Amino acid sequence: MAMKHTIVPAIMSGGAGTRLWPVSTEAKPKQFHVIGGVGTLFAETAARVSGEAGALSFAAPLVLCNVSHTPWVEAQLAEIGVSAGAIVLEPAPRNTAAIAAVAASLAAERDPEALVLLLPADHIIADRAAFLATIERAAPFAREHIVTFGIQPNRPETGYGYIKSGHELGAGVHAIAAFREKPNRETAELYLAEGGYSWNSGMFLFAPALMLQEFAASPAIRDGALAALKGARREGALVHLEAASFTAIPSVPLDIAVMEKTARGAVAACDIGWADLGAWDEIWRIAAKDAAGNACEGAVVVLDSANNLLRGDGVRVCVAGVNDLIVIATPEAVIVAPRMRAQEVKRLRELALGGK
Amino acid sequence: MAMKHTIVPAIMSGGAGTRLWPVSTEAKPKQFHVIGGVGTLFAETAARVSGEAGALSFAAPLVLCNVSHTPWVEAQLAEIGVSAGAIVLEPAPRNTAAIAAVAASLAAERDPEALVLLLPADHIIADRAAFLATIERAAPFAREHIVTFGIQPNRPETGYGYIKSGHELGAGVHAIAAFREKPNRETAELYLAEGGYSWNSGMFLFAPALMLQEFAASPAIRDGALAALKGARREGALVHLEAASFTAIPSVPLDIAVMEKTARGAVAACDIGWADLGAWDEIWRIAAKDAAGNACEGAVVVLDSANNLLRGDGVRVCVAGVNDLIVIATPEAVIVAPRMRAQEVKRLRELALGGK
Fold first, then answer.
1. Cis before B22 (ω within 30)
2. Would you call A336 and B331 a contact, using CB atoms and an 8 Å cutoff?
3. Contact predicate B314/B332, CB 8 Å
């Protein structure tokens, strides 16, 4: 029988999701909405890594978020019957490196033998079984390596970073040869032709002690995180990080602070129906569609239209004779743009909210 | 000095404006909204024919509407400082012939010497001075003729009926040779090439006794209208028409009930910046536009888009990279369609409201 692994999920739930405005707002960012799934992105993320599964035993999750979103976190966890191990409140967004250090330290404090599974709260993973199998396969390597999850690319996507695999450590797990920034189309096609590249999903599995050790490359971040945790005010499950220490931490992604510098990086290959719902066009791509290619959510009336993403949240969306558009309506605002220009929603939001 | 004419405006305000949904609703139809003007269509209609102007003296207007719209009528008249001569409440819509008979009878009851100016409440008339000059020119003929207002066509419009002029009665006023239904494009082009045709604006100027006499062609309508008025319950300015008589009246337009049958029809040529705002594309045509051809009303954010009609009533409309669309948003619904398909809004409304 395989070794049992205790996994502490650490769910990073501090994102703003500005490109999914107007559904995603400052008050209720995208991870707390139903987008392309049955439950909210946050609830599905938490449910996916709960309970027992094969050799995996998931501990109560750590959730890292903004204080103003605590009610969403508590309500949505309650709905799926999950109790938070801790809800860690970030005094200000300080990117993923600071969060990884806090999560590692907090997890080690509870159970130094457990592994930490650091997850964004806003990803779609359609194939939970494959995801759990990948975690199980990666776990034995996660004491000596910080394991990332490399998604098998199926198109020359320019919206994600890529990981180049190095030598094999075990079945489906390789050392990381290099990280590649989001490529242009030509380069992305080269990666696919060459093989050995996967999409960087931004998920990590690691032993907390190893992570803290590898922060040797960026000690200011680790030390700031540990100070913020040491000075934190604890109140039930809530952990109010100490503001002065935390806000002084350089805002750097974990990839840059640690992963690109460590010799202990590994990548577990996976094919798990993964999507990072950055913008509305990606949601259209993964959504269920009618015969004409329209993906509809909420109150929608469609006449003679094709290949649109249509969403009415509390406002009825009615279209006639339009193709390849996104139309997203809430009581606050409506956006209309070609699917190909979904990235511009961020700019529309800035213009609408006056640069906020 | 020219003879003075007392004119009683009779404002037909019972329309539903379903093609201007979702701004125009059952509870507040288009005439009570600001559309393509400064005031509401109804208020601008009433203000346009008030006070003294040259040889014209406008009496307090008669307003004919649905009982549920009385508050809009009262509030919007109060805002422009006009007192209604009467607010006539239609138990059910019965088209313009019935209204003309009621208006003629009610006006004669007050001042048999006055002329009645029967006006839809939802027209745009950009050149008030030219409109008043046309009324003044038409008034001397309105005791012996029912004078219609024929709009000088500037394009082969297929959305309006046409009037063919006959012999001249006086400067710019002709007998009516024939009414023509909305033509197809080819026929409309023929009318323009031939000359002597004008658009039928649906406005009428007449002596009440003459109108009631010419109803000899459709006596059931006149008799029903007179009975509904005789049996009406009066309450201040409100005239509640007697329901049984009124609802029994055949629902026929004045053009068919009287104008196509009478030998007393006349047409006064005019060029007054007139538009009948039937659908959103017509509103785009008459509206003020930005350099890219976008007509915007309300809360609107525009990025790299051209020739759109954009309207946000209490909901912000944000568009990027779209052309030739109508996007109309209210807290109830949003419609998105190409301008060329503005007529389909009526169908969208039916689908959205379940055929109501």
1. yes
2. no
3. no
pLDDT reading at A341 higher than 90: yes
Integer Cα distance of A131 and A267 in angstroms: 14
Question: Over chain A, what is the mean pLDDT?
Answer: 94
B189 interfacial to chain A (CB closer than 8 Å): no
- DSSP at A31: G
Contact residues, chain B, for A354 at CB < 8 Å: none
Q: How far is A291 from chain B (nearest CA, A)?
A: 19
List of residues 6+ apart from B223 with CB closer than 8 A: none
What phi and psi, each to the nearest 5 degrees, are found at residue A223? -65, -40
Q: pTM to 2 decimals?
A: 0.85
Whether the link from the prior residue into B219 is cis, omega within 30° of 0, is no
Closest alpha carbon within chain B to A308:
B336
How far is it, in rounded angstroms, from Cα A107 to Cα A101? 10
Write the residue in A336, A340, A352 that is nearest to B325 by C-beta.
Answer: A336
pLDDT for A2: 60
B348, A315: Cβ pair inside 8 Å?
no
Is B316's CB within 8 Å of A303's CB?
A: no
- Is the CA virtual torsion B65, B67, B70, B71 positive or negative? negative
Cα dihedral: B248, B252, B258, B259 (round 10): 170
* Residue A176 contacts residue A147 (beta carbons within 8 Å): no
Chain B closest CA to A328's CA: distance in Å?
Answer: 10
Q: How far apart are the C-alpha atoms of B340 and B138, rounded to whole Å?
A: 36
Q: Which residues of A248-286 are buried (b: 16+ CB within 10 A; e: fewer)?
A: ebeebbbbebbbeebebbbbbbbebebbbbbbbbbbbeb
B236 Cβ partners below 8 Å, 6+ apart? none
Look at residues B333, B313, B300 and name the one whose alpha carbon lies nearest to residue B22.
B333
Cβ A332–B315 below 8 Å, yes or no?
Answer: yes
Rounded Cα distance between B43 and B58, Å, is: 15
Reduced to 3 states (helix: H, G, I; strand: E, B; else coil), residue A236 is coil
Q: What is the mean pLDDT of residues A190-203?
A: 96
Q: Residue A314: CB partners within 8 Å, gap ≥ 6? A: A298, A299, A330, A331
Contact yes or no for A21/A29 (Cβ under 8 A): no
ipTM: 0.83
